[in-house]
Amino acid sequence: MFDVQTIRRDFPILAREVNGKPLVYLDNGASAQKPKVVIDAITRAYAEEYANVHRGLHTLSNIATEKYEAVRGTIARFLGAADEEEIVFTSGTTEGINLVAYGWAMPNLGPGDEIVLSVMEHHANIVPWHFLRERQGVVLKWVDVDAAGNLDPQAVLDAIGPKTKLVAVTQMSNVLGTVVDVAAIARGAREKGVPVLVDGSQAAVHMPVNVDEIGADFYAITGHKLYGPSGSGAIHIRKERMNEMRPFLGGGDMIREVHKDSVTYNAPPMKFEAGTPGIVQQIGLGVALDYMMGIGMADIAAHEQAITGYAMDRLGGLNWLQVQGRAEHRGAIFSFTLDGPAHAHDISTVLDKKGVAVRAGQHCAGPLMDHLGVAATCRASFAMYNTPEEVDKLVEALELCHELFA
């Protein structure tokens, strides 16, 4: 049974105060807090079990290697991937998408070839494709969302033309919370022979994910949003795409042999994992994913949907507050502005004085801000440990903002 108070006790930071007020942490879309089981695992790894992996036969190296490599299977299980060899460790979604850009797209796309993007994409799923636009003449084709913030899968598929070589799309907007039917996009794109990359940074935290059912060629996640350490993450890459990729980084672990006049690369996924990795970070991520799966992703999603519904009801009574986007299917993320002169940064500062942590700015989503016609928004994002009472505190703090800035 899902018990939010029991879960809250697993997160030490939630017991602290900020500016003399109990912390209300609603910036989970940027980075989630860490449960004690993850903190303890990280401490133990450094204090009792640390050594480099893959490079020694001594006891500590064997322990570290075993725990580190076990995370590959944990991630595969979390993502519903049948083959853990399709899991490549990364430092997060940004590195994962860049791996695809440099390792797959750069050698396979040329002048005039197209990449289809939605206007909702995070900069991490935009800038690597701009590199190809600048350097190789690749064309970026943009698909807008409707007035409610929905992204129609058919509109994405309709944007695919004879020169389209990739569709890159988020499964959940980090600004609007819009949930995208990426399975429909992947299915339709496959029929047209076009690979699909999915940015799963937000979706994987808030809902059950099964990459085999989604059917995308690439699916990237980032650990620090999944209650794990920063610097951890992974990307699921289908084997047929791995076979089309060249290495992105060169160094240890991604090679079998190196000679003066030749080099032999390791087999995937090691082929794409150069250098000493984030050993402890990935071990911590594995513990975080086990923690989430132990609670149950369906139960986490149901709790967060209930909190989001309650928040929408409370905020709907504030006629001076504008929620950006009202998508039919949305996750536990929403952005808002206030009528009047208050900038998002001013609002965030006032909320912080009440102990309420939200994000303010463009949220690394410049094209979406342009589409919405706003300079910046505040964003609240829920996690498994948030409560209706914290929604009430957010509303109280917003009412203070309205009094100050009206």
From TrEMBL:
Q: Which domain of life is it from?
A: Bacteria
The reply to whether Cell inner membrane figures as a keyword in the UniProt entry is: no
Q: Which cofactor does it need?
A: pyridoxal 5'-phosphate
Asked if tRNA processing is a keyword of the record, the answer is: no
Q: Which GO terms describe its molecular function?
A: lyase activity
Q: Which InterPro entries match?
A: Aminotrans_V_dom, Cys_dSase_SufS, PyrdxlP-dep_Trfase, PyrdxlP-dep_Trfase_major, PyrdxlP-dep_Trfase_small
Q: Which residues form the Aminotransferase class V domain?
A: 24-394
What is catalyzed by this enzyme? Answer: (sulfur carrier)-H + L-cysteine = (sulfur carrier)-SH + L-alanine
> Which keywords belong to this entry?
Lyase, Pyridoxal phosphate, Transferase
Which EC number(s) are documented for this chain? 2.8.1.7
What family does this chain come from, according to its entry? Belongs to the class-V pyridoxal-phosphate-dependent aminotransferase family. Csd subfamily.
Name of this chain's protein: cysteine desulfurase
Give the species this sequence originates from: Rhodovulum iodosum
Task: Cite the source lineage.
Answer: Bacteria, Pseudomonadati, Pseudomonadota, Alphaproteobacteria, Rhodobacterales
